[in-house]
Here is the input.
Amino acid sequence: MKQRKPSPCLTLCYNIRVMTFELLVSCVRKDPHELADKMNISSDAVIVSQKEDADSEKEFVRGTDHIRVITQTGKGVGLSRNTCLAASMADVILFSDEDIVYEKEYAYTVMREFDAHPEADILLFNVKVCDERRTYWNEDFHLVKWYNCGRYPAYSIAARASALKMSGVKFSLLFGGGAKYSNGEDSLFLSDCLKAGLKMYATPVCIGEEIPRPSTWFNGYTDKFFYDRGVLYHFLYGSSAWLWGIRWLLKMKPEYSDVFTFAEAKKLLFMGIKDRAETDREFDGAGKMITSSK
Here is the structure.
């Protein structure tokens, strides 16, 4: 697609600092026009829709907003988000899922927050969710470290595109909906961003709400669920994976105790840690296959 000038309504100019914005949406088999209406999209956007049709690209205008649509036959939310990131052209980007409904002027809200915090490469925003799915809620503005970055979903993540692209960090292709292992691509992504030296902050600003829908990866507490958690913890915590695994198992025991005992769950989680550690030489830290020897 040819380069174009950013939409005037999506350019923020504060103190001679100019920023443009794009929403990066990952979805599966969705009509982009209906999706834009449902999500209340009021900014430039890149929508990657995974379906069985041939790969294609197109663009449409919604008011003054330009929305680029990329259809791909590949599967996996990590692939979808990486495609969005590669296609983005704005200064500030916000990752999103198809079940998020945004508040009015969310784009300005995000850009104003970056303008107010020039020290931040990544900002993690509040998004309202139902109680049983909530993993976080930011009460104040604070620095995010390696030990508390795992609670944030991808749709909370906004970034300065230049800093993120320069870091080379991408989403894992091994984890998340449509991938080999269950959720965790967002946790790995944030962990890798911190390892790359990006400055990450949580903000109490709320930008939208999640509409409940069936999970793309959670099918209850099963053998695979605990095994996959072990694999994820191997990539996140390395030699400390077993300790963080026990901590998580103790915290979540009331949730799974009707199906698994603590000992059964621990055995499966430790198996995931051990199996992945034994084959770690085939993979890099982001969970992608290494294609050349080191």
User: Anything to note?
Assistant: The radius of gyration is 19 Å. The CA atoms of residues 250 and 262 lie 8 Å apart. The first strand starts at residue 11 and ends at 14. Confidence is low (pLDDT under 50) at residues 281-294.
